[in-house]
Amino acid sequence: MRSVCAVAGAALFACNLAGLAETKVSCDQTLTAPLRSSAVLIIDSRPAGLEIVGTDHGTIHVTCSGGDSEDAARHILLQFSPTPDGGRLTIEGRHLRHGDNLQVRVEVPWKTNLSVRMPAGEVKVEEIKGDKDIDLYAGQITISSAHEWNYRSVNASVTIGQVSARVYGADKGGFFRSFTKKTTDGEYRLHAHVMTGEIDLVGRKARAEGARQPN
What we know:
This protein is mainly β. The protein has two domains: 22-122, no CATH class; 131-215, no CATH class. It has two helices and 14 strands; from the N terminus they run αβββββαβββββββββ. Strand 6 and strand 7 (86-93) form a beta hairpin. The radius of gyration is 19 Å and the shape is globular. The protein starts with a helix and ends with a strand.
């Protein structure tokens, strides 16, 4: 009887997931889809200016701006695919001409776990509580919050560039620079890495307990 119930439950879950259709639009349109609080959102993006902002809404809302021409935005595609624990946003398309400078704004529930991969550009994360795993080949990562900076584990590193962890009173530049910190009563994990560029951690001053600055 248990096995029958388990099979039925799995089938119901699969049906519910299937009912959440994949959403795909060009970047000159708006993408909106359901996204629950505490979901895991994976973002895989072409080079861009990417701004990820927390809101009170139970959706992901994606808009584009700043391109030199509407034609450029039409050749960039936004695709959101639901997953069992959240969703995946893919931003893909041809490389734009120098100066097109397309910006993508992603609004998500304020409590969202993020995993971001992008080869080059700028990633800004504002007012989002949750785990963060952000990896950029070249460019800048900025993570900011005006509220509680509640991380139990922080690991920010650059191969060449600068780690400015002002929230912890640390600022390091050069080759193979990193900042790590453990806090026993923190809630979330933060990992940020840039091969060549800069990382900025901005927020209310955090306690120095458990800080380690190896480089």
